[in-house]
User: What shape does this take?
Amino acid sequence: MPKEVLIRYDRCLGCRSCQLACAVAHSGAGSLLGAVLNGERPRARIFIHQAGGHKAPLNCRHCQDAPCIDACIAGAMHRQEDGTVTNVGGDQQCTACWMCVMVCPYGVIRSDADGTLALKCDRECRDEKGVPACVRACPTGALVYDEVDEYSDKRRLDVLNRALSNL
Amino acid sequence: MRFVIIGNSAAGVAAVETLRRLGGYRHRITVVSDEPAGAYSRCLLPDLVAGKRTENSINLRPAEFYRRLEVELLAGVAAVEVRPREKRLVLQDGRELAYDRLLVATGASPVLPAVPGTELEGVCTLRTLRDARRLSALVPRVSGAVVVGGGLVGLKAALALRQAGLGRVTVVVTSPRLLIRQLDERAAAMVERELINAGIDFIYNARVKAFAAGPKGRLTGVELEDGRELPAGLAVVAKGVRPNSGLVEKAGGKVGQGIVVDGNMRTSLEDIYAAGDCIQVTDRLTGQKVNSALWTLAFEQGRYAAANMLGMARPYPAPLTRLNSARFGGVDVVSVGNLEGEEVLAHYDPLSRTYRRLVFSGGRLAGFILAGRVDGAGVYTALVKSGRPAWAYRRQLLEGRVGSVALDLLFKRDKGAHNSYE
Assistant: This one.
């Protein structure tokens, strides 16, 4: 059963810890100070937004029939064995045509600073225990990295998972 | 079961992958393709001409793809006849293939104008790898080129020819501006400025009268209807495509704006399915029957067709048939859905140098254009596709603050589930 980053919306305070941790984990330097000293402007792949009175993170759902994979003209966007949908590390290179950006219903695929690569959650930020940086950084436990079925079994699901993958 | 697929581009490849993913390895799959080798990304052919990419780097799948998925690829041979009663496919070289289910994914071919000289050496199209090779071979031998057509393919070809080192590239456009099917005046002007900066000339409101030949049968210039003659050793015709529906039509199958398929991608012929640029689809917004002709749609249709061929009933929802993304220099453009409607809102954001145009009909977003930066475009696309009420989001959409819109849609959609836990 593939794992997913699940969100307990009621716990999110909108502190952007996940956003910062994501950006740093994906930076060349790998640390905030290092990135700043290198003159990097790390880019996050998870985003805090406000809707109604709530703040909440929005990130890639690694959709089942992922529209970004269908749309990729280069064949770069693909699904890995563990379910991760990514445009890096595959057989072909991202060509920055933004077809994936055009079809992602969550708006969570963005261009890099130079406009030469589409950036998205690639789970390349997981630590030695396999936990993604955003989840590790969340101080309130609003982000959970878990197997979807197991999680719903616990009936603690505030997760919107089905709705998310069908939007 | 024995599956035969005619065509090895987006729809064919997606079908192969889906047949294996959902159907395992007990079926036989044969792919017939008139292209010389494996699948490649058609949309990247301009990059090849520009010299920015090699042939290897535009392969759609790695070389071992066919072996790994246990697919028999018959490349470089065209299918010439379908015999639906015998369930056999006849190839150009006389071979016959028996099938249980056949997928026709024959794509589309460029339309050439009905004017003299289209057969000349130097008059090209840019649709296949062969075309790209031919163009690349001609570039060093000429000093100027004319591109006929101001659509996406024409403009990408023009830019590629400049990048390949051609000194003079002129685009002849029938319409009063470029990308008339995708953009409004403002967005088109942004793209035009980029292309002019790249050294491309434009002639609007003009039609080609003839391609003129020199003594050796080579192209020497392009004559326009208004009498002008543009000297050129190379011309690229980019006036759209026509679905390759001939095989099905000859076999007695129904054809409209492409091969007619039902909701499960079946043609009117038994056990014959079709997907990709060769078929007719019903536009989700207008209800009009149009030729499919988009890479994204071809890919998803290949998936749906394969599932249906395996006997899993997967109805294909009516697609958005206007769905384009492209970049020209520093300007990215995305254009989706209708260009006109009841309410049109437009806004230029000088900070991000981004122009946004929203088209509303009945309180729903029926189309949009983004030019400049296109981050978050998919949220607009999702609104157009879903047909949900969107008027309340107009400010956020116009200003590009779409993250909160996406989140709000999620909350609304999931109110039921939201309350049922904890």
Observations:
- The first helix of chain A runs from residue 17 to 25.
- DSSP finds seven helices and eight strands in chain A.
